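## retry 2 of 3
previous attempt timed out at serialization; input unchanged, resubmitting
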Amino acid sequence: MADVLAYAEGCFTGSPGDQVGVELEFLVHDVTDPALTVPIARTTGALGGLTLPGGSVITYEPGGQVELSAPPGSLPSAVAALRQDVDRVRSALAAAGLTLGRSGLDGHRRPLRQLHTPRYDAMAACLGEPYGALMMCSTASIQVNLDFGADPFARWRRAHLFGPALVAAFANSPGPVPWFGSWLSGRQAVWLALDPSRTAPVGPGHLMDSGHSCVVCDGSGEGVVRTTEGPSGDRRRGHPPTDWADYLQAAKLMLVHETDGSCRQTAQGHRFRDFDQVAGRAPTHDDLAYHATTLFPPVRPRGFMEIRYLDALGPVAWPVAVAVAYALIVDDEAAGAAAADALAVAGQWSEAARCGLAAPAFRQAALTAFRAAADALPRWGAPPSLIDQVTDYAVRFVEPGRSPAADLLLETR
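## retry succeeded, writing output
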């Protein structure tokens, strides 16, 4: 029998340092016409056997998106190594008449799944149309993986506290999305429309929208949770491992692995807590660990912390998102300096995705966050070129209150 709380506690241990790893997803387009479907065989043919100097691993998402997963390192070394790998991939694709996309949502093509595995088949059936197909085949993101450091819960809470401001600052996937209208982060709209048992924030990170809890600033930048009773009388303790254990139990099952090695999809509505009933046996640790990989909250613990809420920015601007997120979550001084303005928009994930920096409160929160991050980056060895890139981004987008999606909208007019 899997011990869910013990497993959840283990997800918050194991990475006491300050390293960062980055996973970049890119849509792939034909250079002559971005509306053309690019068969995945064409992409793999261009990149097959490619050796990347920074050590990144190339994989592919269901719609043919390219993903580069870089090994962890210090902020300056991780960014420098991944820059080399992105440049190498761009060159190889260019030779084949292909280019990496600059958006987090494909605005040119209908979703078309090109990879078929039991996992992807189950995911498609579980998440449904149209949003499951859009998420799997038409979205791209920047994932920042951070060590938990000496105080895992502080970094966990900061990742949620600063999340909406960062979503707004890097909103780069303008809609329209079916039934949502035009959002500056249409990718976030897609995620919000999916099964909330597997995509909503974990615990207190989403409670400001539900009325169950609020987040207040204690001056440390953590965003301390003050628990209140919700409409049903339940009480949230704001203890991250407990919140994650509750989330794991309540999330819907996507598939069950059989003892003969096969797997089968489960009926809609069954939760992990129903595993015995569905599978006819008690869940093992492996069952629970696999179930966790089918859950996609904005921040996910895995022995390190996955920041999953950032839109893809294309092959040039992605280091800005990595550097700013790193500084705000890892650097105590930066977190403290930016916390008060971030608190004003804490929990407002959907509003951040819809309006981006056009809303004054999000602009102010992002402006304060960028200034605090720029001040912190030299303390972590960031080179002047990276700091200049952060500053230039702030001047171009944050100060005038324009998310990068605004540029993409202008291009389509």
